[in-house]
Recover the amino acids of this structure.
């Protein structure tokens, strides 16, 4: 006899992985992780395999975000009367 597959809702997945729900939904929208299947109400139902894919993306090393600095203004005043 096979064991039943454990199912989780989105809040439980976020609690397990230590991420915010908005973060998970953003990753889904940007296609970084696949979306979970839906139940008859349209709610996401996550399995252990789904969670493993999200965890793999979360733990994947990514380059740090380095913001571009604004152009520097010269500290030397413009000569007057030119």
């Amino acid at each position: 006899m096979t064991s039943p597959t454990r199912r989780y809702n989105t809040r439980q997945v976020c609690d397990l992985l230590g991420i915010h729900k908005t973060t998970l939904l953003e990753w889904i929208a940007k296609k970084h992780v696949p979306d979970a299947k839906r139940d008859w109400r349209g709610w996401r139902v996550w399995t252990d395999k789904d969670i493993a894919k999200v965890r793999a993306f979360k733990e994947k090393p990514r380059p740090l975000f380095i913001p571009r600095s604004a152009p520097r203004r010269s500290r030397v005043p413009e000569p007057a009367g030119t």
About this structure: The chain is about 35% helix and 5% strand.
